[in-house]
């Protein structure tokens, strides 16, 4: 532990009442029960406010609660005091001053600065040779703002001194997300160096995998000894399966397996059955190459590029980032950048586009006082609070101010530098939205499209009352499937949130140039000459739109007319048009050698897009529908006993399978029921259950099981659906009502949290709308015979249908060879001009590369 004198720095400051030495101990006595020493597992936030991006660098410093260890800026600390009654906070402040000059005019020689004890990023805009930092800590007691300068070892009680030292020496709560640390937590497998690999001729294709024993197609693991592809169980990433990979290990003793779908140029998820934990395999590229997966040349450079791709890809990086163009920086509301945390540009680009949409601005930033006032006791773990914090940080302009004019700098520096914070760090937001997700919680590059769907899912699950801003993306897709033998058809509808356009490479308008370039490139490689300048395929947008509307073959189609598998074709049309249309260009695929491939193409994306001709028409005259007969559900033999004889607790439902189904557009509660009633056997088996039961009237109603009361539907009760057979104990109701809450609020909160007192209090603070709607709660209590009710039962999915005419307002571009490497940049049209958001840099765009985008955002315009 550091010396206390060095830790606490220089006493002093302003804004509070200083205490005489003899009064310190007496003043702290009433608050001693609330002061805690951080224990192992406590998250100590001392770098960032829970409600804003204030830090010790900010003008008002940061206040750390000495009980919860949450941190608050000057604008928000009073709210926490009023809500919790916690009175003692540690105030942290970093001062930046110009260094004292020597006799020759230069700065004095560098020496170790014992006045720095806060683990903070230094200001990149300041030259460290000219400025010095000094950290200050003091205790502040609310509501009178008494200040106790630190150190004050002689007068402070021992417990307080120990608590202060522990807070200041605590590690960052985000240390597992810091670059290069998450991988180091995994041990190297003792089997990696001398792993036996059978020479059995097995070659693994880049797609189309399924378990060799049960035909499951998710959570698949490749055994690195014999090349068997088998399903996993409930280890490592909490995905479901039938455990055939583990059974294979028990039968054969082959210890290592790699999860298919996680293989990237940086590595993959490897599990050791013998060591019973995730491990690192330093020879993974060699072991994968044994089965035809060639990763030896996929090691990324600093920019995520392969060495042999650097020359032809450099133009892509230059064009998308508008390199070589003098870009004018933009400041003010709506022009705030996001600092890169290490491969977090996919998140930054999506969030910039999201918060350029008025519906998201109103839902979160427009409701800021209400959301913050009714946030749970730990706002760092609340989605709506963190969305509001991020939105306010991006839109307020508070963290995007122009640099101080040169003529004022000298005057300011004579006393103290007041740094202008430009750009915000989304560390707390990323930590929350990515927790429990095996990919987004890592420090690897991710697919922006996948994160967009993940975010929409979180918005759906955490909507504020009846308001759901993600409704603007939702639309209905009509799928027409035709049996090729009987010519009979079936029409179904599903929910989707984006339009995926295939790249019609065969429609390239510069085929002759492409052929010539390829020949020249190969000749240059063979003769070790510099590669020619890249020729990019030019694809008409109309060709991509035509490819989208073309019929496609249906794998494993089961014809109800034939009562057997048959050939089938499917066409998709829009049953409704969304308010905002998100278009993804499907640029990424895998080659036969497993190397990720990217279609480096230029597509003439239109500013005005008309897709009214893709409106669904429904059953046409002369068409005959397929019989309404469901396909048989095939349950693996070794899972039947588990399904028939074991009733799982609803709290043990495999949430990863639930989320896979929900991202397909099915109602969340229907997905939970499907996973429950199929015994946690994976998303594919649960999907079959959904197909069979989706026409039932209670299909989307919450899961309620005899013996479990309303616990299973606790998640749905947030949205107005609550089980009524779990009457809360009167003694717990009495405790909550004694705090001043209505009895109806107490009952509703306890039912929503399975009678957990602490969670119920958090629930009350985060759902103020139920206090206003007391008549609804009373009516709910009187309806003793009902199992499930809702405030408003919608007629089908919520959609905002209208015209299919759209205008482009934002697009996200990707640079690099695959979504697992490279860099993302976002362009947004604001106030009639295009603006480029490249991490923390925000500038007016001179040449927006609309033809090279990956995701495009359109908003509806009247025809």
UniProtKB/TrEMBL annotation:
GO terms for biological process: autophagy; cell population proliferation; maintenance of unfolded protein; positive regulation of ERAD pathway; protein K29-linked deubiquitination; protein K6-linked deubiquitination; protein K63-linked deubiquitination; protein stabilization. The keyword Repeat applies. It holds the Pfam family UCH. Zn(2+) binds at residues 211, 214, 231, 244. Gene3D superfamilies: Cysteine proteinases, DNA helicase RuvA subunit, C-terminal domain, Zinc/RING finger domain, C3HC4 (zinc finger). The active site is at residues 345, 823. One of its GO terms (cellular component) is nucleus. One of its GO terms (molecular function) is zinc ion binding. Residues 187-295 form the UBP-type domain. Its main location: cytoplasm. It catalyses: Thiol-dependent hydrolysis of ester, thioester, amide, peptide and isopeptide bonds formed by the C-terminal Gly of ubiquitin (a 76-residue protein attached to proteins as an intracellular targeting signal). Its EC number is 3.4.19.12. Residues 336-861 form the USP domain. Keywords: Autophagy, Cytoplasm, Hydrolase, Isopeptide bond, Metal-binding, Phosphoprotein, Protease, Repeat, Thiol protease, Ubl conjugation, Ubl conjugation pathway, Zinc, Zinc-finger. It is found in: Cytoplasm. The keyword Metal-binding applies. PROSITE patterns: UBA, USP_1, USP_2, USP_3, ZF_UBP. Residues 652-693, 727-767 form the UBA domain. PANTHER family: UBIQUITIN CARBOXYL-TERMINAL HYDROLASE, UBIQUITIN CARBOXYL-TERMINAL HYDROLASE 13. Interacts with UFD1. Interacts (via UBA domains) with SIAH2 (when ubiquitinated). Interacts with BAG6; the interaction is direct and may mediate UBL4A deubiquitination. Interacts (via UBA 2 domain) with AMFR; the interaction is direct. Interacts with UBL4A; may be indirect via BAG6. Interacts with NEDD4. Belongs to the peptidase C19 family. Deubiquitinating enzyme that removes conjugated ubiquitin from specific proteins to regulate different cellular processes. This is Ubiquitin carboxyl-terminal hydrolase. It comes from Canis lupus familiaris (Dog).
């Amino acid at each position: 532990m550091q010396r206390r004198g060095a830790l606490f720095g220089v006493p002093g400051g302003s804004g509070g009442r200083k205490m005489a030495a003899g009064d310190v101990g007496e003043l702290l006595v009433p608050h001693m029960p609330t002061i805690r020493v951080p224990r192992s597992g406590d998250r100590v936030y001392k770098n960032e406010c829970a409600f804003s991006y204030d830090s010790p660098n900010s003008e008002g410093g940061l206040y750390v609660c000495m009980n919860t260890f949450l941190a608050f800026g000057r604008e928000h600390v009073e709210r926490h005091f009023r809500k919790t009654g916690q009175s003692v906070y540690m105030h942290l402040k970093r001062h930046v001053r110009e260094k004292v000059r020597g006799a020759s005019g230069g700065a004095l020689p560098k020496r170790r600065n014992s006045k720095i004890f806060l683990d903070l990023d230094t200001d990149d805009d300041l030259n460290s040779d000219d400025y010095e930092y000094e950290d200050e800590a003091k205790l502040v007691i609310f509501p009178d703002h008494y200040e106790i300068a630190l150190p004050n070892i002689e007068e402070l009680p021992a417990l307080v001194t120990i608590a202060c030292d522990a807070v200041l020496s605590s590690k960052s709560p985000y240390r597992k997300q810091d670059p290069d640390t998450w991988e180091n937590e995994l041990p190297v497998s003792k089997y990696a160096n001398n792993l036996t690999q059978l020479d059995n001729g097995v070659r693994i294709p880049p797609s189309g995998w399924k378990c060799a024993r049960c035909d499951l197609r998710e959570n698949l693991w490749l055994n690195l000894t014999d090349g068997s592809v088998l399903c996993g169980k409930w280890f490592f990433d909490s995905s479901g399966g039938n455990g055939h990979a583990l059974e294979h290990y028990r039968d054969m003793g082959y210890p290592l397996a790699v999860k298919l779908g996680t293989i990237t140029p940086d590595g993959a998820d490897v599990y050791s059955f013998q060591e019973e934990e995730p491990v690192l395999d330093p020879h993974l590229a060699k072991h994968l190459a044994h089965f035809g997966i060639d990763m030896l040349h996929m090691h990324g450079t600093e920019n995520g590029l392969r060495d042999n791709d650097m020359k032809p890809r450099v133009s892509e990086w230059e064009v998308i980032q508008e390199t070589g163009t003098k870009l004018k920086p933009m400041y003010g509301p709506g022009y705030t950048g996001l600092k890169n945390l290490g491969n977090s540009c996919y998140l930054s680009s999506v969030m910039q586009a999201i918060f350029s949409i008025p519906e998201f601005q109103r839902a979160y930033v427009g409701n800021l006082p209400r959301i913050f006032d009714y946030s749970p006791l730990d706002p760092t773990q609340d989605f709506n609070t963190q969305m509001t914090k991020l939105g306010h940080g991006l839109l307020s302009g508070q963290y995007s101010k122009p640099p101080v004019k040169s003529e004022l700098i000298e005057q300011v520096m004579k006393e103290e530098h007041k740094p202008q914070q430009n750009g915000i760090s989304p560390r707390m937001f990323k930590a929350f939205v990515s927790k429990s997700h095996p990919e987004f919680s890592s420090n690897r590059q991710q697919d922006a499209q996948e994160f967009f769907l993940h975010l929409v899912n979180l918005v759906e699950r955490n909507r504020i009352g009846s308001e759901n801003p993600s409704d603007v993306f939702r639309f209905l897709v009509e799928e027409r499937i035709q049996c090729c033998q009987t010519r009979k058809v079936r029409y179904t509808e599903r929910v989707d949130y984006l339009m995926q356009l295939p790249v019609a490479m065969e429609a390239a308008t510069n085929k002759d140039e492409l052929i010539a370039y390829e020949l020249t490139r190969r000749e240059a490689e063979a003769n070790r000459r510099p590669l020619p300048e890249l020729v990019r395929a030019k694809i008409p947008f109309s060709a991509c739109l035509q490819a989208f509307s073309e019929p496609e073959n249906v794998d494993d189609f089961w014809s109800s007319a034939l009562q057997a598998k048959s050939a089938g074709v499917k066409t998709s049309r829009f049953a409704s048009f969304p308010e905002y249309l998100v278009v993804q260009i499907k640029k990424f695929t895998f080659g036969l050698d497993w190397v990720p491939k990217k279609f480096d193409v230029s597509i003439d994306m239109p500013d005005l897009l008309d897709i009214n001709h893709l409106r669904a028409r429904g059953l046409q005259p002369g068409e005959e529908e397929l019989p309404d007969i469901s396909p048989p559900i095939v349950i693996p033999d070794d899972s039947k006993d588990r399904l028939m004889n074991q009733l799982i607790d609803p709290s043990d439902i495999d949430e990863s399978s639930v989320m896979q189904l929900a991202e397909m557009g099915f109602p969340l509660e229907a997905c939970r029921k499907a996973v429950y009633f199929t015994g946690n056997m994976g998303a594919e088996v649960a999907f079959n259950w959904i197909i069979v039961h989706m026409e039932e009237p209670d299909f989307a109603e919450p899961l309620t099981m005899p013996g479990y009361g309303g616990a299973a539907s606790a998640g749905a009760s947030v949205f107005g659906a609550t089980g009524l057979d779990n009457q809360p104990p009167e003694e717990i109701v009495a405790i909550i009502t004694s705090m001043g809450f209505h009895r109806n609020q107490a009952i509703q909160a306890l039912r929503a949290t399975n009678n957990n007192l602490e969670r119920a209090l958090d629930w009350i603070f985060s759902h103020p709308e139920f206090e206003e709607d007391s008549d609804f709660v009373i009516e709910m209590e009187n309806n003793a015979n009902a199992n499930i009710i809702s405030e408003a039962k919608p007629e089908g999915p919520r959609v905002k249908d209208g015209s299919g005419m759209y205008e482009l307002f934002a697009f996200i571009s990707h640079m690099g060879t695959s979504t697992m490497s490279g860099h993302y940049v976002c362009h947004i049209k604001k106030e009639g001009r295009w603006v480029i958001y490249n991490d923390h840099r925000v500038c007016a765009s001179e040449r927006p590369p609309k033809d090279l985008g990956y995701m495009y955002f359109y908003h509806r315009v009247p025809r």
